[in-house]
């Protein structure tokens, strides 16, 4: 792909995607450009990734075929206003923020603007991300294919209707954080029982990775996989009972509902 991929903002999510793209070797570092607010970040990004960095968001916008808005949701209005009138002709805007709709973008840039609303997640940094995309009707099939290729450099990709997008942070964008908390809690439990901290993290994270692969790759229902671990009167069913006593499932469902609260 000989297109330029630009990032407005160089924070955690931009770095996860840039790191993943370069790691995959699908794009050359000369095709990636990004902006940052401080000289410190500009220098760090240039050194770490070897990409071209700018302080001027307009410059990034004017040179990008695919333009990611990788700033916090509350910064979107400011940068949108800033780069308005500076987009490269035919470029595609890619949003990554929860709650920013395609209409929010076309209201400012014009009805015919090509927009892909997306929700990635930070495991992209290690090539194990998950991204849901929702392109508007002005993005051609070929362009959608290219956007999918970009995201496939660091994540699995699903295309969904925009109506579904408000539900995606709960299950995908935010959910790695719940898993990190669970891994931390599992390690605490192991340390309490005398296991050294480093080994506790290794064991807990490998259990989560292995369990995730079992669900993803075997197509066996998660309930059945759970049953396979539970020996009658064994250790696991006692753990499951204790989890349910404390509302484990419901606390996850409630947490996911909370992502949609104002
Ligand atoms: N962190 C995550 O797990 C995920 C984040 N997102 C979304 O990605 C977006 C970025 O989030 P993070 O990378 O986590 O935040 P972050 O705070 O790490 O990065 C945002 C960056 O934008 C920079 N910035 C602020 N104002 C700017 C401006 N006017 N011009 C240029 N750069 C500016 C900040 O200095 C910062 O480095 C957000 O909209 C977030 O909702 C989406 C999925 C997952
Ligand atoms: O917390 C946030 O707003 C972002 C969106 C999904 C993950 N992090």
In short:
The chain is elongated, with a radius of gyration of 21 Å. The longest helix has 22 residues.
CATH topology tier name of the largest domain: Rossmann fold
Secondary-structure content class: alpha/beta
The CATH class name of the largest domain reads Alpha Beta
- Terminal Cα separation, in Å? 40 Å
Bound ligands, each once: 1,4-dihydronicotinamide adenine dinucleotide, (2S)-3,4-dihydro-2H-pyrrole-2-carboxylic acid
CATH H level, superfamily name of the largest domain: NAD(P)-binding Rossmann-like Domain
Walk across the major sheet and give the strand order: 3-2-1-4-5-6-7-8
Q: What's the structural domain tally?
A: 2
Level of helix content? 40-55%
Mean pLDDT score:
97
> Based on the structure, what is the oligomeric state of the protein chains?
single chain
Which percent range describes the beta-strand content? 5-15%
- For the report, how would you describe the main beta sheet? 8 strands, mixed
Order of helices and strands: EHEHEHEHEHEEHEHHHHHH
Given the structure, what is the number of helices? 12
List unreliable stretches of 5+ residues.
none
The CATH architecture designation of the largest domain is 3-Layer(aba) Sandwich
Assign an overall shape: elongated
What would you report as the Rg, rounded to the nearest angstrom? 21 Å
Q: How many E strands?
A: 8
